[in-house]
Amino acid sequence: MAEEAQEVAVEEKPKKPMLKIILGVVGLIVLLVIVVFATLFMSGFFNPKPVIDPDHAEADAGHGAPADAHGKKADGKPGKKAKDSPELARFEYTYMQVEREFLVNVSGSRKVMSVQIAVMTHYDERVFENVKKHEFALRSAIMDVMRQTQEPDLTKPEFRKDLAQKIRDAMNTLLEKFEDFGGIEDVYFTNFIVQ
User: Could you give the CA distance from residue 50 to residue 65 in angstroms, rounded to a whole number?
Assistant: First the structure.
């Protein structure tokens, strides 16, 4: 009989640590759930989403498909960034400097043209992300446009303006090919040297 009492006592002891482990795991899971819900609540996840009037969103995003709350249009193209202006619906222009300069030979001449450019858009940051993403292809296209310059072209009054438009068109064509949207409004020369 003494042996049976010892066996019963031995069998009951392992149950207590197992019970503690199960309660500890359940307590940890409850704590994790509380932390997740508190984080979602503090980040505004449970706040009601703003209702967007499709007519108003289309006026803010420009022509075409209506834009959602993040400026993205239903057709997948970036929406225009609206300025906070009570008087007019105006769009914010943003600029990006292309980091490396472009150096090419002038066609039919011993002269060299060195330019540095900046691009401007009134669409969102995805345009600049696409420019960075396709930097090598864009550099090649820009240099191809610049290589078409001949020495007599350098003396024309509208040469720089025409070259900027050709570069803009080449960049937009390439971006439309790869991303289905160009978005570059203007190209500006921040440095322009012909030697």
Answer: 19
**What is the mean pLDDT of the segment spanning 64-87?**
57
The better pLDDT of the pair 6, 18 is held by: 18
Say which CATH number the domain at 107 has: 3.30.479.30
Q: Which domain holds residue 111?
A: 94-194
Q: How many domains does the chain have?
A: 1
Q: Is residue 17 part of a domain?
A: no
8-36 pLDDT, tens digit each? 555 555 567 888 889 999 999 999 999 98
Residue 1 counted as domain residue:
no
145 domain residue, yes or no = yes
Which amino acid, 57?
A: A
Q: Are 81 and 171 in contact (CB under 8 A)?
A: no
